[in-house]
Design a protein that fits this description.
Strand 1 and strand 2 form a beta hairpin. It contains 16 helices and three strands. Helices cover 57% and strands 4% of the residues. It folds into two domains: 3-106, Tyrosine recombinase, N-terminal domain (DNA polymerase, domain 1), CATH 1.10.150.130; 133-311, Intergrase catalytic core (hpI Integrase, Chain A, Orthogonal Bundle).
Length: 315
C-alpha cells in the first residue's frame, strides 16, 4: 500500500500515524495548501515554520502526534510566549495550528480536533508614536523655501500634519482633488474609499505657494496632474516621500525615528488634546471603525497621567 493510501486510513488503525512522524503529516499538509488551496509560497513557509516548531517541542517532550491534546497545544503556545513571541505572532501561530489540526481531523488522521478550543491571544495595544506640537513647529519652521525644493517639501509636511493623510493618499493627490479656496481635499483611501478632508490655512498657503512658484519649474511634457512631483516631473514615490520626511527631520534636529505616519498620528493626537470629538477625528482620518480611532484616547490618557505625575504634589 502506498504512502498516499496510508495517510487516508481511518483513525482506528493507529499504526499508520505511528509509522509516519509528524514531519510527514506537515509535508502532506503543505502540499494540500499549495495544490488544493493555491496559497502562496510565503504563506506555506510561514505555516511550516509554526508546525515544525510544534513538532520539535513535542519531540523534546516525548509526545506523539496522536497523543497531542488541547492542553499540550496550549502549553506550547505558552512556551512560545515565554520565549518572547509577540501577541500578533502568537495569533498567527494559533491560526496555523487550527487549520492543521482541523485538516488532520477532517481526514480521519486524528479522532478529534484538539486545536478547536484554542483562543487567539488578544491584540497588544501599541500606542502610536507622536511628536510634541513644538517639535512639529520646529520641523516646519526649519525648512527654507528659498532653497531648491524647499517650497515642495514644506507643502508636503504641512499637508501631512494639517490633514492627517496617509502616505499613499498624499502621493495620489491630484490637482483636481484640491479646493484651496475652501480648504478641502478629496482623497482616496483604504478600500478605494473617497473622503473629504480639511486643509488648514497654513497648509493652504504653502501648497498655493508651491503650485505657483515651484511646481511649474518641475513640469515636463509627461507630467500628470499629481500635486507633488519630482525634479523629473513625475509623481513622487512613497519611498521618496519617506526620504524627504526623514531628511527634513534630521536637519531640524529631531532625534527620534521619523516617518510620514508619525505626522498623521500627531495630527490626530493634537486634535484630541484640543478637544475635538473622536467621531470627527475618525472621519478626518478615514477610519471605517471608531475602535481604530480610539487608540488616540489611550495616548491622551498617557499624557494626562504623565502630567499629573510631574506636577501634582502627590502624583
Amino acid at each position: 500500500m502506498g504512502v498516499g493510501a496510508d495517510l487516508n486510513l481511518p483513525w482506528d488503525n493507529h499504526s499508520a500515524i505511528l509509522r509516519h512522524p509528524m514531519e510527514r503529516e506537515i509535508d502532506a499538509f503543505i502540499r494540500y495548501l499549495a495544490v488544493e488551496k493555491g496559497l502562496s509560497a510565503a504563506y506555506q513557509s510561514s505555516v511550516r515554520q509554526s508546525l515544525e516548531a510544534l513538532a520539535a517541542w513535542l519531540r523534546k517532550r516525548g509526545t506523539a502526534l496522536h497523543d497531542t491534546g488541547t492542553e499540550e497545544l496550549a502549553a506550547f503556545l505558552g512556551q512560545r510566549k515565554t520565549d518572547g513571541l509577540s501577541a500578533a505572532s502568537l495569533r498567527i501561530t494559533t491560526v496555523h495550528l487550527k487549520i492543521f489540526f482541523r485538516w488532520l481531523a477532517a481526514g480521519l488522521r486524528l479522532p478529534m480536533d484538539p486545536a478547536e478550543p484554542l483562543l487567539s491571544p488578544r491584540a497588544e495595544a501599541h500606542l502610536p508614536e507622536t511628536l510634541h506640537a513644538s517639535e512639529v513647529v520646529g520641523l516646519l519652521e526649519s525648512i527654507d523655501i528659498a532653497e531648491p525644493l524647499g517650497r515642495r517639501d514644506l507643502a508636503i509636511l504641512e499637508t501631512f500634519y494639517s490633514s492627517g493623510l496617509r502616505l499613499s493618499e498624499l502621493c495620489g493627490l491630484r490637482l483636481e482633488m484640491l479646493d484651496l479656496q475652501e480648504g478641502f481635499a478629496r482623497v482616496t483611501g483604504k478600500g478605494n474609499k473617497t473622503r473629504v478632508t480639511r486643509i488648514g490655512s497654513k497648509a493652504r498657503e504653502c501648497v498655493a505657494d508651491y503650485l505657483t512658484n515651484e511646481r511649474p519649474k518641475l513640469v515636463t511634457r509627461r507630467t500628470s496632474t499629481h500635486v507633488f512631483i519630482s525634479v523629473r516631473g513625475g509623481p513622487l514615490s512613497p519611498d521618496r516621500v519617506r526620504q524627504i520626511v526623514k531628511t527634513r527631520a534630521a536637519r531640524a534636529g529631531i532625534g527620534q525615528n521619523m516617518y510620514p505616519h508619525l505626522l498623521r498620528h500627531s495630527f490626530a493626537t493634537h486634535l484630541l488634546e484640543g478637544g475635538v470629538d473622536l467621531r470627527v477625528i475618525q472621519e478626518l482620518l478615514g477610519h471605517a471603525d471608531i475602535s481604530t480611532t480610539q487608540i488616540y484616547t489611550h495616548v491622551d490618557r498617557q499624557r494626562l497621567k504623565s502630567l499629573h505625575k510631574s506636577f501634582h504634589p502627590r502624583g
